[in-house]
Amino acid sequence: MNLANQIVLLTGASRGIGVAIARDLGKAGAHVVLTARDLAGLERVAAEVRVAGGKATVVAADVSTAEGRATIVTALDAVGPVLAFVSNAGLEVPTAVHEQTHAQIEKQIAVNLTGPILLTRALLPGMIARGKGAIALVSSMSGKSPTPFNAIYSATKHGLNGFASSLRIELDGTGVHAGVVCPSFVAEAGMWHDTGLAAPGMMREVPLAKVVAAVRAVLGGKGEVLVTPSPVRPLLALAQLIPGLDGPVLRALGVMTTLKSRARTTIEKGASE
Ligand code: NAP
């Protein structure tokens, strides 16, 4: 998809993976509408987008609230028609379900699922009327596989995948496309990198550039891109065929041990949201 001089909405643009996506959109010559809550972070990323060759507009807003989403939609009305939407904002509270507060659970659902769905809902009428548009929803391998000690996050990402695949088919013939990017543990930036932990035993981190390329691939028409160190589709298919296999597989890969110890650390440090 040619993004030169086209308007692209990017959420989660203040830090982490969003910065790399923003730079890439800037390099493509897009006018990127960058949103997140941290205005100073957004301004820094906007400067990078401009250096890369794009235009940038910043909108400080909380994607999890109706007020925040209204702020984003109003800002977009002033900028012009949106060709592409990259839904990248995300939140995890990686602890056991019984250790999460009601507020933490509600917030993860609102940031990871309600926000992306309602922003998509707001953008679709214009895209459908113009007969062109693309929506890339940044999900996770947690949307494809169980993720113990991060079950709420996993539930939201499974929801996002269901939303994206249903929407993709629903939009057939409209000229508007929707798809998901599902990374595993991402290196160099983002919520996993910030933990300072190493990816579990048999897994490795995936390069940030691969996530950025996957976003572009979805904007270009792919329905689902898994960004993992090795092909996992056969394992996922096997787990569908043999319910109960997923637990032993996660244990064998060393994922259980790592996620359990991260949950302990998160509780000791105290989750911020
Ligand atoms: P991150 O470094 O924690 O950044 C999260 C971004 O989301 C920030 O820009 C943050 O901005 C924004 N955000 C969080 N809550 C928000 C809210 N209430 N309203 C508006 N914006 C909000 O995380 P990341 O790793 O870059 O994650 C980006 C996406 O990749 C997420 O969807 C995540 O689930 C997914 N993912 C990440 C990994 C990984 O290994 N890092 C793996 C798989 C999937 P403010 O705090 O300024 O609002």
* Estimated radius of gyration: 18 Å
Order of helices and strands: EHEHEHEHEHEHEHHH
Total individual domains: 1
- Strand order across the largest sheet: 3-2-1-4-5-6-7
Q: What is the helix tally?
A: 9
Characterize the biggest β-sheet.
Answer: 7 strands, parallel
What would CATH call the homologous superfamily? NAD(P)-binding Rossmann-like Domain
In the CATH hierarchy, what is the architecture at level 2?
3-Layer(aba) Sandwich
N- to C-terminal distance: 36 Å
What best-fitting shape do the alpha-carbon axes yield? globular
Oligomer: single chain
CATH class: Alpha Beta
- CATH topology name, in short, is Rossmann fold
Helix proportion range: 40-55%
Cofactors, ions, other ligands:
NADP nicotinamide-adenine-dinucleotide phosphate
Keywords:
7-stranded parallel sheet; alpha/beta; 9 helices; Rossmann fold
Description:
With about 270 residues, the chain is α/β, with parallel strands linked by helices. It has one domain: Rossmann fold. Helix content is about 50%, strand content about 15%. It contains nine helices and seven strands. It has a seven-stranded parallel sheet with strand order 3-2-1-4-5-6-7, sandwiched between helices. α1 links the parallel β1 (about 5-10) and β2 (about 30-35). α1 packs parallel to α2, α1 packs across α6 (about 210-220) and α4 packs parallel to α5. The model has no long low-confidence stretch (mean pLDDT about 95). Bound molecules: NADP nicotinamide-adenine-dinucleotide phosphate. NADP nicotinamide-adenine-dinucleotide phosphate binds near residues 11, 13, 37 and 138.
